[in-house]
């Protein structure tokens, strides 16, 4: 199943009413992994995983920005508390 397109991956403006924060990710999770997890909910315009500059490993959290707020709401409702990579992830609105 192909998912909606992604405008860009990486840093950029992630503060808006369509951005969600994902926490308790494994250190090995990368931006394409997060995209794959969330893309079935709608079109994603940006994905960002915080990385440790020294190790290059993830810091355990990231952000997903959807085009439509309803898509982000649905992702939060369904994936908050979901087991991903043997960890229970937390999915909530990103604070600006």
Automatic annotation (TrEMBL):
Keywords: RNA-binding. It holds the Pfam family RRM_1. Residues 18-96 form the RRM domain. CDD domains: RRM_eIF3G_like. One of its GO terms (molecular function) is RNA binding. The gene is ga30582. Transmembrane segments: none annotated. InterPro entries: eIF3G_RRM, Nucleotide-bd_a/b_plait_sf, RBD_domain_sf, RRM_dom. This is RRM domain-containing protein.
């Amino acid at each position: 199943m192909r998912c909606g397109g992604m405008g860009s991956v990486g840093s950029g403006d992630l503060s808006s009413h369509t951005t969600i924060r994902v926490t308790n990710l494994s250190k090995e999770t990368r931006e394409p992994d997060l995209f794959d997890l969330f893309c079935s909910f709608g079109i994603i315009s940006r994905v960002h995983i915080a990385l440790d500059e020294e190790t290059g490993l993830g810091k355990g959290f990231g952000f997903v920005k959807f085009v439509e707020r309803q898509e982000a709401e649905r992702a939060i409702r369904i994936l908050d508390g979901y087991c991903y990579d043997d960890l229970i992830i937390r999915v909530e609105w990103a604070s600006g």
